[in-house]
Amino acid sequence: MNPETSKLRLDIDSNRDHIQGSDTAVVTLLEYGDYECPYCGQAYPIIKQIQNSFGEDLRFAFRNFPITQSHPHAQNAAEAAESAGSQNKFWEMHDYLYEHQQALDDIHLEKYARELRLDLNKFNQDMSEHIYLPRVKEDFLSGVRSGVNGTPCFYIDGIRYDDSWDIETFTERLRNIVNSKRSDTIG
Hints:
Blueprint: E1 18-20, E2 27-33, H1 38-54, E3 58-64, H2 74-86, H3 90-99, H4 106-115, H5 120-128, H6 133-145, E4 153-156, E5 159-161, H7 167-186
Parallel strand pairs: 2-3
Antiparallel strand pairs: 1-3, 2-4, 4-5
Helix pairs in contact: 1-7, 2-3, 2-5
């Protein structure tokens, strides 16, 4: 892949993006994901494991990339996550959606909102009026401009990661980056 097309085009912004971890973390991992994508579902526990393993050294961000041609519920699931985010429960809904990936129709999305104790009137209004559709589209278009053509798609410190995302390979790559950055600051 051309180095210019492998760069993230919209920088991660703590005022806009959904982020876990500190802005001062050693390495930043961004995922463009689709809640209905089976590969994203497989990556979900791997990312959780990596977050636990790296702790404060890792900052993780997530952007929506619903592939609606193959995943008919992905768009609404992304909007549901954004609606939950407006009630400070983005990550809870994010996790819930991946953990219940086989049931993402509107009835289940409302059920998840209820289980997460969201304000259901606000959630239902957000969903019926597609309040967060522009946000989801913004994420999607930023992915397209950055060269995303499938999910999950990962960027490490703004550079697309095209290697295997199995736990061993991914952990080794991140560990090498963390160690390299640490030795640069020491040396």
